[in-house]
């Protein structure tokens, strides 16, 4: 099989708006696979997948073959028809740190400058990624509409995230009089170090905490997905799995009070 097909597959993945990072990872795995197996069979694929001791890598290898097989079929190419028979290694999930209301309150109390307080407010209010927060420009903030436009995201697609009244006030304090330019003037590493100084959870833990808090407050899963930039409910489930029981209790209690 021609390796150039993988390059075309990666381009089509980009054009369709899917994650560039995932496309690069799949292309890397597929090229490695085809170098060793130019005319691959199902047995070849299974043996190649078992060639790594990491369960995560085995799953990613299987996913790359399945995704490539679907693409080949869409192109009318008959090779690798067996791709959907490739088993996927069971994903191992570990407890993930999730920022809580207590973390939010403590971080605000420890923050010494308006900028640091605004970082915490935006993380808690929007669930943006660390890189997205650093790339935020003053012109991206719509104070009248109570929203921020995230122009560069992990998926390559822009999106809109609502901001709370408290976060909006915090942002006004640091961008007042400015029409453009970086909102925070920070690098991703600077944000990481700030959170460490505040003894606060990581930026990704704030993203998880934002999702959980939004669902707990009655925001629909559809709205959470849209604001987070997730194409499916899989990420919502992954982020909230550990707190699903608590969320269920909250929803039932709301229904009983109506």
List the topology elements.
Layout: H1 4-15, H2 20-36, H3 42-49, H4 55-74, H5 101-110, H6 114-126, H7 130-135, E1 141-142, E2 147-150, E3 159-162, H8 165-175, H9 188-197, H10 203-216, H11 221-228, H12 234-240, H13 244-257
Antiparallel strand pairs: 1-2, 2-3
Helix pairs in contact: 1-2, 2-4, 3-4, 6-8, 6-10
Can you put this structure into words, describing what you see?
By secondary structure, this protein is mainly α. It has two domains: 4-85, DNA polymerase, domain 1; 101-257, Orthogonal Bundle (hpI Integrase, Chain A). It has 13 helices and three strands, in the order αααααααβββαααααα. The protein has a three-stranded antiparallel beta sheet with strand order 1-2-3.
Calculate the terminal CA-CA distance, rounded to whole Å.
62 Å
The total strand number stands at 3
Please list the strands of the largest sheet in the order they lie side by side. Answer: 1-2-3
Oligomer designation: single chain
What portion of residues is helical?
55-70%
Structural class from helices and strands?
Answer: mainly alpha
CATH fold-level label of the largest domain: hpI Integrase, Chain A
Helix-strand pattern: HHHHHHHEEEHHHHHH
The CATH architecture term of the largest domain is Orthogonal Bundle
């Amino acid at each position: 099989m021609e390796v150039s097909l993988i390059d075309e597959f990666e381009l089509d993945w980009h054009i369709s708006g899917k994650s560039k990072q995932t496309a690069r990872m799949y292309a890397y795995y597929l090229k490695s696979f085809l170098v060793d197996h130019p005319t691959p069979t199902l047995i070849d694929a299974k043996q190649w997948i078992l060639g790594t001791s990491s369960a995560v890598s085995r799953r990613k290898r299987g996913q790359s073959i399945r995704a490539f097989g679907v693409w080949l079929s869409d192109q009318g190419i008959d090779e690798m028809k067996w791709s959907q028979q490739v088993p996927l290694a069971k994903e191992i999930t570990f407890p993930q740190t999730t920022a809580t209301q207590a973390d939010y309150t403590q971080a605000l109390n420890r923050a010494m400058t308006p900028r640091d307080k605004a970082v915490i407010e935006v993380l808690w209010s929007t669930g943006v990624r660390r890189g997205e927060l650093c790339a935020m420009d003053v012109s991206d903030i719509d104070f009248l509409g109570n929203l921020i436009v995230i122009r560069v995201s992990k998926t390559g697609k822009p999106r809109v995230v609502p901001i709370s009244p408290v976060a909006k006030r915090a942002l006004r304090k640091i961008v007042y009089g400015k029409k453009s330019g970086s909102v925070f003037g920070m690098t991703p590493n600077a944000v990481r170090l700030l959170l460490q100084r505040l003894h606060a959870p990581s930026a990704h833990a704030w993203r998880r905490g934002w999702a959980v808090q939004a669902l707990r407050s009655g925001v629909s899963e559809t709205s959470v997905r849209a604001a987070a930039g997730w194409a499916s409910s899989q990420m919502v489930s992954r982020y909230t799995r550990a707190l699903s029981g608590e969320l269920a209790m909250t929803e039932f209690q709301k229904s009983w009070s109506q």
